[in-house]
Design brief:
By secondary structure, the protein is mostly helical. The chain has three helices and no strands. α1 packs antiparallel against α2. The chain is elongated, with a radius of gyration of 21 Å. InterPro entries: DUF1232.
């Protein structure tokens, strides 16, 4: 969610410091992008660490692709 919020702020025409102010107008955008890149890097590193700790058998189940497009559909509980 924070990544989406950061991207929305960067793309938004409304800024904390308006972009038309010379030299200072882009500072808030640069700060948001730097924070966004740091956040993404931290999240990816946490995922890589988690993935390295998983048993190969568990990864084989999680990473298995469905054989057919129909198997991609989420199946709810069977109705009686």
């Amino acid at each position: 969610i924070s990544v989406v919020a950061g991207l929305m702020y960067f793309l938004s025409p409304v800024d904390a410091i308006p972009d038309f102010i010379p030299m200072f107008g882009m500072l808030d955008d640069i700060a948001v992008l730097a924070w966004l890149m740091k956040t993404l890097d931290d999240e990816l590193n946490a995922f890589r660490l988690w993935r390295r700790r998983q048993q190969p058998e568990k990864l084989a189940v999680v990473e298995r692709l469905p054989d057919t497009p129909e198997q991609l559909q989420l199946q709810g509980p069977k109705k009686p």
